[in-house]
């Protein structure tokens, strides 16, 4: 999912006196082959469908795009009226902690049960949808 933050300008590594990178010894593990191209394509397709259908995700994409444009700007208008108009436009695009209502359909024993999911964190909500899609894919 897109983020309004650029990892190169946020965090300790952006400071001139940042601590050097450290590494811990690796842990022994056995790789899993449960993630394949078909799973990735299925998850990507379902995500793209949700982006097309969900106005909250579309707003997030638009806000992210606008924020990136603003971060790349090297100047701002000194004309007060023009600057206020820009700020009002930015405020229209920003939604402050709106409640999200989304239907989740879960196939259980051949039937569909619809449950309501209300989350303020759209990233968490989308992560849950992707996890649910992954579980559904692996059950088939």
Write up this protein:
The protein is α+β, with helices and mostly antiparallel strands and 140 residues long. It has a domain at 42-58 and 103-140. The chain has helices at 37-53, 55-72, 80-93, 122-139; strands spanning 100-108, 111-119. The chain has a two-stranded antiparallel sheet with strand order 1-2. Strand 1 and strand 2 form a beta hairpin. Helix 1 (37-53) crosses helix 2 and helix 1 packs across helix 4. The longest helix has 18 residues, at 55-72.
Tally of DSSP β-strands: 2
Mean pLDDT, all residues: 80
What is the makeup of the main sheet? Answer: 2 strands, antiparallel
Morphology? flat
Taking the alpha carbons of the first and last residues, their distance comes to 26 Å
Q: Write the H/E string, N to C.
A: HHHEEH
Runs in which pLDDT lies below 50 for 5 or more consecutive residues are 96-100, 109-114
What's the gist of this structure?
With 140 residues, the chain is α+β, with helices and mostly antiparallel strands.
Secondary structure layout plus pairing:
Blueprint: H1 37-53, H2 55-72, H3 80-93, E1 100-108, E2 111-119, H4 122-139
Antiparallel strand pairs: 1-2
Give structural attributes.
single chain; 140 residues; two-stranded antiparallel ribbon; 4 helices; 48% helix
